[in-house]
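Recall that a protein's primary structure is simply its ordered list of amino acids. Everything else, from secondary elements to tertiary packing, is in principle encoded there. The following example makes that idea concrete.
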Amino acid sequence: MSSASSPLHTRIWQEEPQADNPFATHTAHCHGYDVYGQMLGRASWVDMLYLLFKGQAPSPAQARLLDALALALANPGPRDPMVHAAMCGGVGGSHAAASLIAALAVGAGQSGGARDVRLAMDAWLHWDAAAADDQAAQIACLIAHDMPAWLATSDSGWPAREHPAGFDPHGVSTAGIVLKALRALAGMGVGPRLSWLQAQLGALEAAASMPLAMTGLAAAAFADLGFTPMEGEMLHLLLRLPGTAAHALEQQTVYGFKRFPYPPVDLQDDPLVKHPQERVA
């Protein structure tokens, strides 16, 4: 796509303007597919996602896996820090964009966030290079604490890793929704990582001394779908936004600040205790 005054370069999108209005789009193609003339009404949301990121249409099996993963990630729940950040924005009356930006900022981290997914996907790249019959080496790739080369720079801005990427440092065993999601996604037969993860889960947990987290499951699924670590990081942020938006709106329109679950505040030096005469009536 380009204009005479300011060329834009993209392999993703091609537009043709209307004959009577150069600022309005007549046709739009995504990696060669006519979006409004060929895809609309025939392709799904995840078909479009896969096409945008990978430049080709997904196979039926890939589309089913991505659709299932999108459902699993759609709402992390109100106890998740990313969702809670959006709820804080909603209950405070923030604009929609502010609530979502707060959620993205909190959900971008390397402890249960999108950067955790990227680090775990980087570990899967090392798993790919390990010998298929060397289970110990494969497990070691996934629980390594050392920084990958792309992150081990002085200006990375990220703190040192405190636990293996994709694992829950606060958990005891893989159970609940993570285990249910693993069983469902591994049974879809797309790529080797999810099925290996299910088969070796016990040994992997024992080696890591902590259970698999949803970020680790998502990383394996994204890798099986052929996404790069950078693409997986971006998609993880995107696919978790629906729940954050819904919870932000609920807090803003239904409950309000009087019923918001604020954490208790334990003041170590409460001025009102020292000077009760200053208490405002």
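The radius of gyration is 23 Å. The mean pLDDT is 88.
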